[in-house]
Write a structure and sequence with these properties.
The chain is mainly α. Helix 12 packs across helix 14 and helix 16 crosses helix 20.
Length: 432
């Protein structure tokens, strides 16, 4: 800094700190040390909020109490949170002055991590839009005059199909889609009843597409498939990134639910009356059962299913940990139970435990406290091992549950926050 007096005054929220110029040069706070390299008043104002040249005083409109604790870090080398101050607000002050979370003491780092995980919210792309862009979307104006009408129309269509709470039209569309999903599931479940017309005849003629269309269930199924297909095609057309659209899990599930119907129609038309029709009939039944994936489509419209999916996505490490716990316990208790129930006495041993894989089945139903009763130990050592297996299963299954529970609550609050924001915008649209 090549102007001003030998001393510098930092005015932070009304509290003044006086330093020598050479101290400013090597100051631990990055924002303060940047003042030494400023060669003009314009560069100074890029670092601070205001500057008094006569008194060589730099004004910072920041939290004075938080800066006092930061100055304690400069003096003693230990940084802790200011009492009765939000951890996130203090962390924001730290970032402003050029500090990071690693400068905090370990106890405060844990408090910051917990606070950030509790208050984490997902901000969609719409949150970063400017007021002019939002006004353009709401009023359909084009301030730049560059023919953005078609792009705005595609964006509105995309939000209508992708965000069920974005508008009244989107809610109506989502309601219709839910009705089609429910009707399709009812037809699928009813088709397995013995008295259902399509389940009366198990012969190969059952799978003829031309005969199947004559049934009411076939017509309803075709209408539902047509709706889902049209919905998927429109969403693909109006999507911004086609590759990203194809990689999204819900879109993959939509294609997995729609494709089997067309495959079954194609296979039925190709097999006809030849000898491979019976094999094709089994394949068609398998493909028809894949329509159960349509239930996952409800995740677009229900907060609970979205919370479950987001929790599983974020807790995959805990789920793997739980799976490892179960596999290790199965290997240990399965080998011991096979030895105690069958291996020690081959003539009079329990035949249900003739092999370790068979014993592992007993271990898994015991650890999960299901206990079907199809197999059980009959020797005293085997029963003692069974008790230990049950208790161990309760403990092992409970260990990762805490992490999964906290993640579930966090995901629910996050999605609830987003849903509330969309509901407020929807209410404004309804009133207007």
């Amino acid at each position: 800094m090549k102007f001003g007096s030998r001393t510098c005054i930092l005015n932070v929220g009304g509290t003044k700190y006086v330093f020598r110029r050479d101290v400013i040069k090597d100051f631990p706070l990055r924002r303060v040390s940047r003042l030494h390299g400023c060669v003009s008043e314009k560069e100074v104002l890029e670092v601070c909020d205001d500057y008094d040249r006569e008194r060589n005083e730099f004004f910072f409109d920041r939290h004075s109490e938080a800066f006092g604790f930061i100055m304690l870090y400069v003096k003693y080398g230990k940084l802790r949170f200011a009492p009765q101050m939000c951890e996130l607000a203090f962390y924001n002050e730290m970032i402003y002055w050029g500090l990071e979370s690693a400068h905090l003491e370990f106890c405060c780092q844990r408090r910051l991590d917990d606070r950030m995980s509790e208050t984490y919210t997902y901000y969609s792309e719409e949150d970063t839009k400017t007021e002019d862009e939002l006004r353009v979307e709401e009023e359909g104006e084009d301030p730049a005059g560059r023919g953005r009408g078609s792009a705005q129309w595609l964006e509105r269509m995309r939000r209508t199909f992708e965000e069920p709470t974005s508008s009244i039209a989107a809610q109506i569309l989502a309601s219709v889609s839910v009705i089609f999903v429910i009707v399709s599931m009812v037809i699928l479940c009813a088709s397995t009843l013995p008295d259902w017309k399509t389940a009366e005849n198990r012969s190969v003629d059952e799978h003829r597409y031309t005969e199947h269309l004559t049934d009411h269930s076939g017509i309803i199924e075709a209408v539902c498939i047509g709706w889902f297909t049209a919905e998927c095609i429109v969403r693909f057309i109006v999507s911004k990134d086609k590759c990203k659209f194809m990689r999204r899990p819900l879109n993959i599930i939509d294609m997995l639910a729609i494709t089997p119907y067309y495959i079954s129609v194609l296979m039925t038309g190709l097999t006809g009356e030849n000898s491979q029709l019976q094999r094709a009939g089994v394949t068609l039944r398998v493909l028809r059962m894949m329509r159960i994936f349509w239930l996952i489509k409800l995740a677009r419209h229900f907060l609970g299913l979205q919370t479950l999916g987001l929790t599983l996505k974020r807790c995959y490490r805990e789920m793997v940990m739980l799976l490892v716990f179960i596999c290790v316990a199965m290997a240990i208790f399965g080998a011991l139970s096979q030895l105690l129930e069958h291996g020690l006495d081959l003539d009079m041993g329990n035949e249900d435990y003739a092999s370790i894989p068979a014993a592992c089945w007993w271990v898994i139903i015991s650890m999960t406290t299901v206990g079907y009763g199809d197999m059980y130990p009959i020797t005293m050592p085997g029963r003692v091992l069974g008790g230990v297996c049950v208790v161990s299963g309760i403990v092992l299954l409970a260990l990762p549950i805490t992490f999964i529970y906290h993640s579930f609550v966090q995901c629910y609050q996050e999605l609830k926050f987003r849903s509330a924001r969309c509901s407020r915008s929807l209410s404004a649209e309804f009133l207007n």
